[in-house]
Recover the amino acids of this structure.
């Protein structure tokens, strides 16, 4: 049982909430950054956080790129930096939407950390978006990606692209590189580690006001199972992992004093595979999340409703079955961090059950 204090940026986010709960369960004290007191109050009211309020404190950071982090980092043993925008349908100026909060935000946080002598580890939530290059034959390029791969987009192309998805991917690359470059150029005393997951699914722990305001991956899943999609939507990034493993990877790297990049990868997925699973699994089941989440029981009629509103598509037609489908190599995380992954079925069962529960709450 630890009583060390750590800083977690963007604690109200999908991944950050899981990191926070796992840290709190392990006995750590967590200082989370939020944009407003309203966000902090919502977290305090969450049933996932209520048992740990004595270990939890907040720092109001209105703008991760420009706000002063000197008080937020004071006395902490490590910084978990998760705050970064993810919206592949965004419109407008990419510097405002992505690059300032992602790149300048990372530089701002790590610069503050470098001035605090107590900090031993700086852990960055990056993305497979910073690893792969999504052009040419992708996703049928026969490539197995490792931690040595980087998205090949140039800075000029990052600025000139018309596609929000491309700008997001670029922002993750440049933000992750900014952390390592700062650490090297300034000879920081702490170790830097980063984590590069593809699409992240799993139960929702962070407070949300409505299902229309879900994080990107959960939002895409909700579109599929809610009946809003009349056809199977295309799968942009046919690779996934479980949010609970992403959270565990951050904490394990901190506890093991690890550094460098880690690919976090459960396996291939696409929307047709998810639809097939949901239509079969949600006929009549009882679903239980992994602790500390509550038990959710889905009555048979509601399960049939879920099955009926998920489009049928072309059952069995998956990207992973096609020749030359890409892969990721997560062996470093398994070997060095001891990561273990739930099955495809468990991750998506828990994901859909979580969404269904939110729907039943009227959100």
């Amino acid at each position: 049982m630890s009583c060390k204090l750590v800083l977690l940026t963007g604690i109200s986010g999908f991944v950050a909430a899981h990191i926070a709960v796992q840290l709190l369960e392990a006995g750590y004290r967590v200082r989370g950054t939020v944009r407003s007191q309203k966000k902090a109050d919502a977290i305090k009211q969450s049933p996932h956080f209520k048992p740990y309020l004595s270990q939890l404190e907040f720092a109001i950071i209105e703008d991760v790129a420009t706000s002063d982090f000197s008080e937020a980092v004071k006395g902490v043993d490590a910084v978990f930096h998760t705050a970064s925008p993810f919206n592949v349908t965004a419109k407008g100026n990419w510097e405002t939407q992505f690059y300032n909060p992602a790149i300048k935000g990372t530089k701002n946080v790590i610069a503050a950390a470098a001035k605090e002598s107590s900090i031993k580890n700086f852990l960055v939530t990056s993305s497979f978006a910073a690893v792969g290059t999504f052009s040419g034959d992708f996703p049928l390029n026969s490539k197995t990606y490792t931690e040595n791969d980087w998205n090949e987009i140039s800075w000029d192309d990052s600025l000139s692209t018309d596609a929000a998805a491309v700008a997001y991917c670029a922002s993750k690359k440049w933000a992750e590189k900014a952390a390592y470059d700062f650490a090297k150029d300034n000879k920081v005393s702490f170790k830097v580690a980063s984590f590069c997951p593809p699409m992240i699914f799993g139960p929702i722990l962070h407070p949300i006001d409505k299902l229309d305001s879900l994080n990107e991956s959960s939002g895409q899943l909700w579109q599929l199972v809610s009946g809003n999609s009349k056809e199977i939507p295309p799968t942009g990034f046919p690779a996934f992992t479980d949010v609970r493993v992403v959270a565990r990877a951050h904490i394990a790297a901190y506890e093991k004093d690890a550094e460098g990049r880690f690919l976090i990868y459960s396996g291939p997925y696409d929307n047709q595979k998810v639809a097939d699973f949901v239509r079969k699994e949600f006929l009549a089941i009882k679903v239980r999340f992994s602790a500390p989440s509550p038990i959710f029981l889905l009555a048979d009629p509601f399960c049939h409703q879920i099955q009926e509103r998920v489009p049928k598509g072309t059952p069995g037609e998956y990207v992973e079955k096609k020749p030359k489908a890409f892969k990721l190599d997560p062996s470093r995380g398994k070997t060095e961090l001891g990561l273990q992954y739930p099955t495809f079925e468990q991750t998506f069962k828990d994901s859909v059950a979580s969404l269904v529960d939110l729907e039943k709450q009227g959100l």
Observations:
- The radius of gyration is 20 Å.
